[in-house]
Amino acid sequence: MNTIYDEYYYKIYRWAIKKTHHKEDAEDLTNSVFLSIFEYFNKDSPIEKIENLIWKIAYNLWCTKAKEYMKRKNTTSLEPEDSFGYEINMLDKIVYKEIIDDLDHFSLTDNEKKSFQLYYISDLSIKEIGEKLSTKEANVKYYLYSARKKIKEGYHE
């Protein structure tokens, strides 16, 4: 078990960071994966390929945690959240709403400006913005990232 842990811990942890976008959640997910692997070994069940088992367990645990998160978000959401475990800083939201009037001063593209306004003024989700702009969610995330970056650079000049 130690060799499996040594070989796969950082791979699982890096994967978990990408999935959760949050250090503590990634650590929890990684630990849950190895606990499940340990429990599986104690069952004395046949294992065809250990790597397949590890990734199957990791994926299934991720799906379970993501479903729990979505249920929690839909029932007890007091703070808006951007992704699994990442809370948007409310002060940033307030500041960005104040900036909306000055968007023309930051050399934003049309898509960046529309995404920014829909996200911070209309409080639409990234998925909703993507549907409204007829683009992929990844593009919307990039537009928001790029707009925030240009705005921050504009204020530092």
Task: Write structural notes for this entry.
The chain has helices at 2-20, 23-42, 50-76, 90-99, 110-120, 126-133, 137-156; strands at 81-83, 86-87. It is mainly alpha-helical and 157 residues long. The chain has 2 domains: 2-76; 89-156, Winged helix-like DNA-binding domain superfamily/Winged helix DNA-binding domain (Arc Repressor Mutant, subunit A, Orthogonal Bundle), CATH 1.10.10. The radius of gyration is 20 Å and the shape is elongated. Mean pLDDT is 78; it is low at 76-88.
Largest sheet: 2 strands, antiparallel
SSE pattern: HHHEEHHHH
Helix coverage percent of residues? Answer: over 70%
Tally of helical runs: 7
Mean pLDDT across all residues, rounded?
78
Strand content: under 5%
* Whole-number count of domains: 2
Q: What structural class is derived from the secondary structure elements? A: mainly alpha
| pLDDT < 50 runs, ≥5 residues | 76-88
Characteristic key phrases:
157 residues; mainly alpha; two-stranded antiparallel sheet; 2 strands; 3% strand
Concise structural overview:
The chain is mainly alpha-helical and 157 residues long.
Topology of this protein?
Blueprint: H1 2-20, H2 23-42, H3 50-76, E1 81-83, E2 86-87, H4 90-99, H5 110-120, H6 126-133, H7 137-156
Antiparallel strand pairs: 1-2
Helix pairs in contact: 1-2, 1-3, 2-3, 5-7, 6-7
